[in-house]
């Protein structure tokens, strides 16, 4: 299962956001650094408005959504790459994820301690970025020493790797993330084996207070974080973690009504989950029958046999063709037989 790591400085709202994401109170949310030591892990459903209407069409009560695993990692502090705070343990937990969601505090509240003593998104992002870059730099330098020997001995693959390592080292020494380095597809294959922290797709989550939600772009901290995300080739989303955690106790209809009363069209948690799914280049295809309606996760541009293989390997091996219908066509027709009569069903072969 794909994993997203929720990271950031201590006390910025990571565990509160995790509780909202997982709709439970399993993560300790407390007003002091290192309230989280061991990472909390929760499985989250990917919001998909197609599932319930589809279940009504095929007359089933069982819905199985696509899922995503979120990991609430302990707060990072300056010197983590040298072992400060939870140091290497913290960095190892991030390395085990497929993407990073960095929570950045964008609200003022004297009752909530900030580890640096003031609110400054640029400084906070740089603190985390520098520690991750320093850890990656150490990884690149160790690999470079090994590859250099092989390159001198005439190993062509080692020479190619050295060129990539030189690019990465130059960027990381400047505190720049590895994902900002221009790499060819072949070079990306080399980098993938290094398991670098700063190569992972990243979403910056601006954690604001409830008052800032309706007109979030007026918040100077949000604007700063948006600029950072654009420069870093990362995504950004604005969320009020405290509000989202409180909304969990309300029925879905009341949640939507309350958000609308604040001038917010949709849940920040839903937007964050969808953005995480999209950032990793994932899509869902759906199967529907009396037994269940299920969303299956595949990378975008996956071919039909490999998509079928996510259901069962035997289907991929014996694949000849698949009958496919778009959700919109089926929804408008109201039943699969009606959709078929209207010519909405198409055959997809192996390509």
Molecular structure report:
Helix 1 packs parallel to helix 8 and helix 4 packs antiparallel against helix 5. Strand 6, helix 7 and strand 7 form a beta-alpha-beta unit. The strands form three sheets. A six-stranded mixed beta sheet has the order 2-4-1-5-6-7, with helices on both faces. About 5% of the residues have low confidence. The chain has 351 residues and is of the alpha/beta class. It has 14 helices and eleven strands. It is flat, with a radius of gyration of 23 Å.
Topology:
Layout: E1 3-7, H1 14-22, E2 40-45, H2 51-58, E3 63-64, E4 67-72, H3 87-95, E5 99-105, H4 121-152, H5 156-173, H6 185-192, E6 202-207, H7 220-231, E7 235-239, H8 241-247, H9 252-261, H10 268-279, E8 282-288, E9 293-299, H11 304-311, H12 313-317, E10 322-324, H13 327-333, H14 336-341, E11 346-348
Parallel strand pairs: 1-4, 1-5, 3-9, 5-6, 6-7
Antiparallel strand pairs: 2-4, 8-9, 10-11
Report the count of strand segments: 11
Helix content: 40-55%
Q: Structural class, please? A: alpha/beta
User: How many helix segments?
Assistant: 14
Biggest β-sheet strands, sense, barrel:
6 strands, mixed
Radius of gyration: 23 Å
Please, what is the oligomeric state?
single chain
Distance between the termini: 26 Å
On the 0-100 scale, what is the average pLDDT?
84
Gross morphology: flat
Q: Tell me the strand order in the biggest sheet.
A: 2-4-1-5-6-7
- Point out poorly predicted stretches: 25-37, 83-87
The fraction of residues assigned to DSSP E strands is: 15-25%
Q: What is the string of SSEs from the N terminus onward?
A: EHEHEEHEHHHEHEHHHEEHHEHHE
């Amino acid at each position: 299962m794909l994993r997203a790591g929720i990271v950031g400085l201590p006390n910025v709202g990571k565990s509160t956001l995790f509780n909202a994401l997982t709709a439970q109170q399993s993560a300790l949310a407390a007003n002091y650094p290192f309230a989280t030591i061991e990472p909390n892990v929760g499985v989250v459903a990917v919001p998909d408005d197609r599932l319930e209407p589809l279940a009504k069409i095929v007359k089933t009560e069982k819905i199985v959504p696509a899922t995503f695993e979120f990991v609430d990692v302990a707060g990072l502090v300056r010197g983590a790459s040298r072992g400060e705070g939870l140091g290497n343990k913290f960095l190892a937990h991030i390395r085990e994820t497929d993407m990073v969601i960095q929570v950045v505090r964008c609200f003022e509240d004297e009752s909530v301690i900030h580890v640096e003593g003031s609110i400054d998104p640029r400084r906070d992002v740089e603190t985390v970025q520098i520690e991750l870059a320093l850890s990656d730099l150490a990884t690149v330098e160790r690999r470079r020493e090994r590859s250099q020997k092989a390159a001198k001995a005439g190993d062509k693959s080692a020479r190619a790797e050295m060129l990539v390592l030189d690019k990465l080292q130059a960027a990381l020494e400047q505190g720049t993330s590895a994902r900002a380095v221009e790499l060819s597809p072949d070079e990306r294959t080399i980098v993938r084996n290094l398991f670098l922290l700063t190569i992972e797709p990243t979403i910056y989550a601006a954690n604001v207070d409830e008052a800032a939600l309706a007109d979030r772009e007026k918040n100077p901290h949000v604007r700063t974080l948006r600029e950072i995300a654009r420069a870093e080739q990362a995504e950004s989303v604005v969320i009020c973690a405290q509000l989202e955690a409180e909304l969990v106790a309300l029925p879905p209809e009341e949640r939507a009504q309350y958000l609308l009363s604040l001038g917010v069209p949709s849940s920040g948690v839903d937007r964050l989950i969808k953005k995480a799914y999209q950032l990793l280049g994932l899509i869902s295809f759906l199967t529907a029958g009396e037994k269940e309606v299920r969303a299956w996760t595949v990378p975008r541009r996956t071919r039909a046999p490999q998509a079928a293989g996510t259901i069962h390997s035997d289907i991929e091996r014996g694949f000849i063709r698949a009958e496919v219908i778009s959700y919109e066509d089926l929804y408008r027709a109201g039943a699969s037989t009606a959709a078929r009569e209207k010519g909405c069903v198409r055959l997809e072969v192996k390509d």
